[in-house]
Amino acid sequence: MTSWKKYERFVAELCSEDYQSPSVTVMPNAKINGCLSQTTRQVDVLIDSRFGDDRNRRIIVDAKKYNRPLNVKDVESFHGMMIDCSSKAGILVCPNGYSTAAKKRAQDFINLKIVSLEELENIDLELWDDCLSDNCDERAERGLVLWDAPMGIGFTASPVSISSIGKCDVCGEFHIWCWDCGKKFSLSNESAAQCNCEHSWFWLTAIEGDEVSLNDHQQSESVYLLLVTPIDALIADRKPFVHFPYAETV
Ligand SMILES: [Zn+2]
Ligand SMILES: [Zn+2]
Asked: 203 and 180: one domain?
C-alpha cells in the first residue's frame, strides 16, 4: 500500500473515532454528486447525517499529503469543493502545517488539522477487513472496510444481538458483521441479506429520493441500509447515491 493511501485511511480512522455518534455516519473515500459541476467528486472522508439527507450536518474531509505547508490557494480550492459537495463545513488535513493566510482564509467553517506522518506508525491495518463484495473494483487494490462502533439490536429494553456496520473504502458497499455468529457479509444496492443466526430480522438496502434536490436537473438520492424486523423497517445507515458513476473528477 502506498504511504499516500495509508495516510488517507489513517485520516478516515481518526474521523470515525472523532465523529462516533449514532446520528452521524463516516464514509471513507466517498463519492458525491457535485451539485454545480454535475460530476462525481471524490471525498477522502465524508461525515454525513445517518438517518436522512440533512445537509447541514455534512462535513467533507480532504487529506493533503504535501511536503509544504498549505497555502491560501489550497484552502480556496477546497472551499470550492465544499460548495460543489453541498457541505457547509470541512476539514483539511495536512502533515506539514499551513500559512497564516491559509488559516485566515479558512475562517470558522474550515478546520485545518495537522496529522504528522509519524502518526502513521500507530495504524494497525490488521483491524481493517478486506471488502467482501464481488463488485469491488479489481483494477485497483481491493478495498478495506471501515467499521462503525458495534450496535445493539433488540426490541425490548436490553439488546439481544450485537452487530457492526461498515463501508468499503473502494466500492462503498455496506458490510454487516454479526457478533453472535461471526458472519461478515456485504450488501450491494437494492439487495437483502441475513447472517447465519435465525434472527427474526434481516438487512435490506434501498434507494430513496432525498427531500433536497441536487440541482435543477436532478433529484438527489440516498442508499439506505434498513434493518427489517417483523414490525418495522429501521434506518441503520445511509450513503449518498452517485448519479454520475462514470464521470471523471477533473
Ligand atoms: Zn469494496
Ligand atoms: Zn449472526
From this structure: yes
